[in-house]
Amino acid sequence: xxxxxxxxxxxxxxxxxxxxxxxxxxxxxxxxxxxxxxxxxxxxxxxxxxxxxxxxxxxxxxxxxxxxxxxxxxxxxxxxxxxxxxxxxxxxxxxxxxxxxxxxxxxxxxxxxxxxxxxxxxxxxxxxxxxxxxxxxxxxxxxxxxxxxxxxxxxxxxxxxxxxxxxxxxxxxxxxxxxxxxxxxxxxxxxxxxxxxxxxxxxxxxxxxxxxxxxxxxxxxxxxxxxxxxxxxxxxxxxxxxxxxxxxxxxxxxxxxxxxxxxxxxxxxxxxxxxxxxxxxxxxxxxxxxxxxxxxxxxxxxxxxxxxxxxxxxxxxxxxxxxxxxxxxxxxxxxxxxxxxxxxxxxxxxxxxxxxxxxxxxxxxxxxxxxxxxxxxxxxxxxxxxxxxxxxxxxxxxxxxxxxxxxxxxxxxxxxxxxxxxxxxxxxxxx
Length: 431
Prior knowledge:
single chain; 431 residues; alpha+beta; 15-stranded antiparallel sheet
């Protein structure tokens, strides 16, 4: 479980440095288990489809807000057994001296057989989100539902850049240009929105909505030569020390729009997000190395060495995303079967592709002694193509707990563990 402990520790560091809040890379609150199409589980449905604000607050309620509506953390590891442990072992061997010729050759044979798979498939990733206390806020008026939100999202990813391991018989050491590659992003968001019915035929109604979002992004990347890592440090230390290296801050504004056709027993909707496709820059690496000194200079030259494999200057675009959603209701509206699918793939801040398909089954018990519950399944149709199952509960109509577990596994310390894990916890109220 070491990789998950590493990711959780880095997640705590990321969020401890946060000031405000942003769009979640990890679906917030009950949206982790319920894809949102059934609505009304949470005020956070309004942060997915802007038209959903109409259903995120009860028809007879004037005001709804979160106390701490969501705090969540998720982890993901690549399909390489014992990835973090192998990197730690290599760091330890690079710090040794007085290595004999036979032992040196054995180390060369061992690590050169795994460096390429580590580079191709190995990574540790943490991502999560937290809502600013009291947000989102929803207010129902005669004109429609107004929303305000403030949240934070963060991601960090450690990958590996491989170069052959060699034995130096003069220094009696093993040497390599292999390096850790750390990318991280933190996004603070403030958003305002509006939703209202615009057409009410006899069979149902059409609701439209929009969100205007201000985004502040802090993006960073760093190449860390394994030769420069201190002998008492490991993968966890590399992530914690490097996630904010060369950080660059930039801001932009974007717009989401959505529509929902609501009928008595089913609902369909569409969301068009990030219409302006705002761009945010990473801090540059591998340049002006002569102005640096010590390990910073060494890492700078190492980054330049890998310029044919990684971008030294990079821009992240928050790409447009179209999502279709739908739900069927049963049990006088207490139960729902919902699904949603992204119609295109998009890159997250650390460069991974995402295109989600989600299915969820839920039931609102409408009693205080038995919690509402939901079961979910999701599949990334792009990138890693990972899938997960989730379960969520709402206690007393206010406290949400959702947990997701990956359906694919890898081995850590000889034990099979899920490649992905996530949880959300939150508390919100209506008035």
